[in-house]
Amino acid sequence: MTLRPVQRVLLLFALFALVAAFGLPSKLARAAAPTLWLPTPVGETWWVAQGFYCGTHTGGLARALDLAKVDGSTYGAPVRAAADGELFVWDGRSGTVILSHGDGYYTEYTHLEGPVSTTRGTRFKQGDVIGYVGYIGTGGFPHLHFVFFRADGPYASNRRGLELDFADGYSFHDTSGCNQHYGTEVIAQGPDTTPPTISFTSPLAVDAWACENQRIEFTIEDTHLVHGFSQAFNEDPAGDAPAFEARSGYVELDWAGEGQHTLHVRAWDTEGHQAYATYGPVGYDSAAPTFDLPATLPSITYTAYSNLRLRWPAASDGDGAGVRGYRLYLGTDSDGTDDWFSADTTVSVGGLDPGRYLLRGQAVAEACEDSAWVTLQELVVVDPSELTTAIPQATATREPTATAPLKRRRPLKPTDRPLRQTAAITVTATRTPTAVDPRSAPLAP
Fold it and tell me: Considering the chain, what is the average pLDDT of its residues?
């Protein structure tokens, strides 16, 4: 079919309209510039010996930097590819390597010796060494001449120097005047390929117990930048993003309450790498043990002169470190204390004279504060000759004769009768009361 002139004009108009609306095909679309990293060795401090414009930096490539080491010799220092690319040019007369990064973007490195490759098309990854700083064309001052430029066609014609934005955190844009950015110091970092690290400090060691509130602090380090962290007691603070945008933090034990706890911390860097660490377990015991005693003090009758097994309710330390044992007092003093110790809630005694006694106890904590002294029970010890009925088995237990009794002595002749039990357990005597076993006889009947 032959198109008429009017039809051809309309078709061309439609084609131009489509191009205007949707753009050129993707192959012709302008690509984004490559991400650049400083071409100097990671961790070393270099400085700008000559900046943009003036001196030897003129014309289309006036946006150039001459870089030299701050400490030590620049000669022989390795030079790294600023971005992924392939060798476009090696010019041995000036020691120049030009890497092509695609879509008309190039980086130029001049005054090099010992190029790693002189073969066009050799591929380099960002950070790969491409050569070493030499003396060629430096006028006796070894340095690296670096340019980032855009060019056209297969021969990179019409070269145009570009402003510099390094991913290491340094930017070099046009300002004004001659020798722009002269004296600026830079430290290359390179891409962040490692996760951050988490370190803890605390006066409380792992597996230890604290009797008072303690703080656990932590710090996050990264080769580049820390994004933040999340924290939790006794569970992983999972998530896709940090709860706090900071590089350090802390927790306090009373946030978790009594018990053993483990601190969990998850950290992020700006590249999305994560780190996970824990501190613990650590214990927090803020309260003393307590006894759960009945409202009325138990009063139990025992037979005199025989071995007895005394029992009492166990004390509780809640979520604390626990109870190690009990200090006990057996005597007539309602406020009596002693160093007599039992690891459990039962103890054998023997050789008690007739009378009335008080068994008092103090729970000894595994880690922190001991309990207050409390009266556990009243013992009414009766002479066998005065018994008219059998003593119930639930209230008196006779020990085998093989049990070694406490040291006995002959009962004293009665002088005073024991006081009768009243609602408030108060024991009085005509002489100063002391603990027994074998300290003194009870008040005589």
Answer: 84
At 224, the pLDDT band (50, 70, 90 cuts) reads confident
Q: List b or e across 96-128, with b for residues whose CB sees 16 or more CB atoms inside 10 angstroms.
A: bbbbbbeebbbbbbbbbeebbeeeeebebebbe
30-187 against 287-445: fold identical: no
* Whole-angstrom distance, CA of residue 166 vs CA of residue 333: 84
Which amino acid is present at 218? F
Report the half-sphere exposure of 24 (CA within 13 A, side-chain side). Answer: 5
Class of domain 197-284: mainly beta
- Gyration radius (Cα) of the chain, Å: 45
> Hey, is 365 helix, strand or coil?
strand
Short-list 412, 358, 353, CA closest to 386: 353
Question: Which structure tokens are listed for 53?
Answer: 């414009």
pLDDT of residue 350: 85
Residue 239: which of 265, 277, 270, 218 has the closest Cα?
A: 265
SS3 state of residue 120:
coil
Pairing of strands 226-233, 259-269: antiparallel
Residue 27's contacts (CB-CB under 8 Å, 6 or more residues apart) are none
- Domain map (residue ranges) of the chain: 30-187, 197-284, 287-445
Q: What pLDDT is attached to residue 389?
A: 52
- Closest by CA to 249, choosing from 237, 265, 261, is 265
Beta bridge partners of 259: 284
Q: Is the pTM above the cut of 0.90?
A: no
- The domain defined by 30-187 folds into Glucose Permease (Domain IIA) (2.70.70)
pLDDT in tens, 247-263: 999 999 999 999 999 99
| Partners of 250 in the β-ladder | 217
Q: Which two tokens stand for residue 430?
A: 């005509």
Residue 99 contacts residue 58 (beta carbons within 8 Å): no
